[in-house]
Specification:
With about 375 residues, the protein is an alpha+beta fold. Helices cover about 45% and strands about 15% of the residues. It is built from 14 helices and ten strands. A five-stranded antiparallel β-sheet has the order 7-3-10-9-8, sandwiched between helices. Strand 1 and strand 2 (about 75-80) form a beta hairpin.
Length: about 375
């Protein structure tokens, strides 16, 4: 029986041919089709193999848990284990196929053109989700990082309705946080337009250039120190700032998602069970916090390469059967977020991985363009 860790060169070539054929067509692959494909190889172990030889090797690969037969047809499809091996092969070896520099000239030009005129971290991330969705067969995802040292540039509060306030916080890095604040918690009081303007002016005049996490601590310290009418103003400032920039900001991180229609088109939705599963997947995508948790669980801001994750269901059960391809986006050595694609196992891994890697470097290229 063939062992997945001790495959022959011929078995690897056959498995690669099956996987790439399945990615292209979505149909089970038979031995005759593989033999025809391998027959076009000019040299190497795979050249000139008969259909019978391929069929015998496919039996070995199936026994090793790398191929499965979806129904009574002669064709086989790759298992999740086979896809993992395939991705590892793309990234390794003497001539790896996964490298941002190997992305086609046409794709690089398309990406570069898409980012023309885009400035600021938030705008870059928003455009990124759109570009990745366009280039892939999956959902483009971009999540802004919470930079511990991000500095306050400007804050603005606008009264929307009774006990509802729009807060806009702009940082030096160009990140814009906008949130609708509900002033209906214990201890909250409704604030007039004048009180909102006064609070914003106070923050802008006293804390511009401060790290966002230091503002909360300093306002709390000032409240403890002051025992006058000044404390009334500080109370309003604290009430607004705590809600506008929560202490645990991961739950409020800016998340961009685009291309859900790609996922709908790639999933079989014939049965009631299929439709229910797809509905669960879409609900998970709409719950932005689940995406933040997903990328936090698998993507390290310090990693240097694109990562492919197959076991998404371990973190988000609704995403069973889907794959994450993602990488941290950096600017001047600092992580500005995470960009990636969530899609079906049957996706063009080489192109998608190279596109994610190329786009992850867009931030640095825009900050330090090559002359």
């Amino acid at each position: 029986m063939a062992n997945a860790d001790r495959m022959t060169t011929r078995q690897r070539a056959i498995l690669t041919s099956i996987i790439e054929s399945y990615i292209d067509t979505g149909e089970p692959v038979g031995s005759a089709k593989v033999a025809e494909s391998m027959g076009r190889v000019q040299k190497g172990d795979g050249a000139g193999m008969s259909s019978a030889t391929v069929r015998n090797e496919m039996v070995e690969l199936a026994e090793a848990g790398l191929l499965e037969q979806p129904h009574t047809s002669a064709g086989r499809i790759p298992t999740a284990r086979a896809f993992r091996m395939y991705v590892e092969g793309l990234s390794g070896g003497a001539n790896p196929r996964v490298d941002a520099t190997r992305l086609s000239v046409q794709s690089r030009q398309q990406i570069d053109l898409s980012f023309v005129g885009v400035a600021g971290t938030q705008a870059l991330l928003q455009r990124t989700s759109h570009v990745l969705a366009t280039l892939s067969s999956g959902v483009g995802v971009a999540i802004a990082a919470v930079a511990d040292g991000d500095l306050l540039e400007h804050v603005h509060f606008s009264r929307l309705a009774t006990r509802r306030v729009l807060a806009v916080v702009v940082t030096k890095s160009g990140l814009v946080r906008d949130r609708v604040l509900a002033l209906d918690g214990i201890g909250d009081k409704d604030l007039s337009t004048l009180e909102l303007e006064t609070a914003a002016n106070f923050l802008n005049e006293n804390f511009r250039g401060w790290s966002v996490e230091r503002v909360r601590a300093e306002v709390a310290r000032m409240i403890d120190r002051e025992r006058s009418e000044y404390q009334v103003l500080l109370g309003s400032v604290q009430q607004l700032w705590v809600k506008a920039v929560p202490d645990s900001d991961s739950a409020n991180r800016t998340v961009y998602v685009e291309g859900v229609a790609n996922l709908v088109g790639s999933q079989g939705v014939g049965s009631v069970e299929d439709r229910e599963r797809l509905r669960d997947v879409l609900a998970a995508l709409e719950a932005k916090q689940r995406l933040v948790e997903l990328l936090n669980a698998y993507i390290d801001a310090r990693q240097e390469s694109v990562r492919v994750v197959f076991d998404l269901e371990e973190q988000v059960p609704e995403m069973a059967g889907l794959v994450l391809i993602a990488a941290p986006a950096r600017m001047a050595g600092e992580s500005r977020g995470t960009v990636g694609v969530i899609g079906p196992k049957r996706m063009h891994y080489e192109n998608t991985m190279n596109a994610v890697g190329y786009i992850a470097n867009v931030f640095d290229r825009m900050l330090h363009p090559v002359e």
